[in-house]
Specification:
Belongs to the MurCDEF family. MurT subfamily. This is Lipid II isoglutaminyl synthase (glutamine-hydrolyzing) subunit MurT. Its EC number is 6.3.5.13. The structure is a single chain. It contains 15 helices and 17 strands. The protein has helices spanning 2-19, 27-35, 39-44, 60-73, 88-98, 119-126, 141-144, 147-159, 172-175, 278-294, 298-307, 333-344, 391-401, 411-420, 434-450, and strands at residues 51-55, 78-80, 109-113, 130-133, 164-168, 187-192, 219-225, 228-232, 245-254, 257-264, 267-273, 314-320, 323-328, 351-355, 383-387, 405-407, 427-432.
Length: 451
């Protein structure tokens, strides 16, 4: 009776929250945690094919979306936290939304993106059969601390379950998480073997370039961006594991996407992905790795990768007033640097809006802006507008990088200034932090509705 009451109360609260315009994506999970804390485990336990959890600093939403698409094409009924609410409360709310009042769930498998610090709470409840760790970068320092602290939190979550791990071989700190697994037979690796020079990012901030065992600085034969690449410890304590699933060639890459070859268990497969950038290539690779481990038909996986569109705010394109606006989420130095390298560096006089907020979902500490290699923008003579609660700090950072920016009074004002500077048919680039991205999307939808 307590569980039935918890579901009824949570569903009512979710409905009221949505009516008030607050989404209702996390509060139901908080309520259930108070009334029936054992309910999430029971709900997840009904899924006949179990759960897949996706975690890491960057790429969780995109990788989760790719996996969901592949599984649905394979005939699975998939339950997921599509809204991107990836704290424990958000994951539990997704489970509740799929349950009827008797606590029955009709899905066959769950795929959930999970916040790095929340994995140790979510994993023991959901008992995933598969768990993928994408990467580890500095992110929200006021919440996570440094990379080693985040890695320790992830290791705690991994050690609590008997899941099969899929780890990024090119991220030394992620690869070292294999020691937290129940055994070497429970670990698979994915990575990039070959990448054209034009797709490597020499401007990225390096977040983790030391051996996790002896502390010695790693040696790199190749660096694709930040600290992702081919590495080894000079003392022999750590070496890049051989990937089970790997990108072996990139045949074509531009702003419209990437064509590449993946070797899965020694068999090559040609792939097309509609998102550009090396960081998105890793997201596709991670999804292919898990799909391979699940035994999905490679043709089904390839079609899912080809047809899946960007998650909201992640390389999302919007047509407005005869102009194309690219919405490119930024949240840490490595991700910001990849956006710069993929979309802006080398482009003549790009028109850019950078909207930086410091709300809790963004991280209060924005000192990371000073680690972004914005100096590389200067040669292109960009026209930049800043907006958000930290608009002036962003403008100051650009000033020291050699670029002067105009400061908008609001996100909507920033969009107006960006559009005013774009010729018909032109491209504009909006780089927002998470909460600013939500504001930007609302403002753009309002303009489209009024047109």
């Amino acid at each position: 009776m307590r569980e039935t009451a918890a579901i009824a109360v949570a569903r009512t609260v979710a409905a009221l929250s949505r009516r008030l315009g607050r989404g209702g994506r996390t509060l139901p999970g908080v309520i259930v945690g108070k009334i029936a804390p054992e309910l999430p485990r029971k709900l997840a336990g009904q899924l006949p094919h179990g759960c897949i959890l996706v975690t890491g600093t960057n790429g969780k939403t995109t990788t989760t979306k790719l996996l969901v698409a592949a599984l649905r094409r394979a005939g699975e009924s998939v339950l997921t936290n599509e809204s991107g609410a990836n704290l424990r409360s958000g994951v539990v709310s997704a489970l509740l939304a799929a349950a009827d009042l008797r606590g029955r769930i009709g899905a066959t498998i769950g795929v959930f993106e999970v916040d790095e610090a929340s994995l140790r709470l979510v994993a023991p409840e959901l008992r995933p059969r598969h768990l993928v760790v994408l990467n580890l970068f500095r992110d929200q320092l006021d919440r996570y601390g440094e990379v080693d602290t985040t890695a320790a939190l992830l290791a705690e979550g991994i050690a609590a379950v008997d899941a099969h791990l899929y780890l990024n071989a090119d991220d030394a700190r992620v690869a070292s998480l294999a020691t937290a697994a129940r055994g070497p037979d429970r670990v698979s690796y994915f990575g990039i073997e070959q990448l054209p020079d034009r797709l490597t990012d020499a401007h990225s901030a390096v977040d983790s370039d030391r051996c996790s065992r002896c502390g010695e600085r790693l040696r790199f034969d190749r660096i694709f961006y930040s600290h992702l690449g081919h590495y080894s410890c000079p003392n022999g304590d750590l070496t890049r594991p051989r990937p089970d699933v790997a990108v072996t060639a990139v045949e074509h890459a531009d702003l419209d996407g990437t064509e590449f070859t993946v070797s899965a268990d020694g068999v090559p497969h040609r792939m097309q992905f509609g998102l550009s950038g090396t960081y998105n290539l890793y997201n596709a690779l991670a999804a292919v790795s898990v799909a391979t481990g699940l035994g999905l038909d490679p043709a089904v996986t390839a079609e899912a990768v080809r047809t899946t569109e960007a998650a909201f705010g992640r390389v999302e394109k919007t047509e407005i007033q005869g102009r194309t606006l690219w919405l490119l989420l930024i949240k840490n130095p490595a991700g910001f640097a990849q956006v710069l390298d993929t979309f802006l560096i080398g482009r003549a006089q790009p028109r850019v809006l950078i909207a930086v907020n410091d709300l809790p979902a963004d991280g209060r500490d924005v000192s990371w802006l000073w680690d972004v290699p914005l100096e590389a923008l200067t040669s292109g003579r960009p026209e930049v507008v800043t907006a958000g609660t930290r608009a002036y700090e962003m403008a100051l950072r650009l000033h020291y990088a050699g670029t002067e920016a105009a400061v908008a009074s609001s996100v909507d004002d920033g969009i107006s200034r960006l559009l005013a500077g774009l010729p018909p048919g032109g491209d504009g680039y909006i780089l927002p932090t998470y909460t600013a991205m939500l504001q930007v999307r609302r403002a753009l939808h309002s303009r489209q509705a009024a047109a």
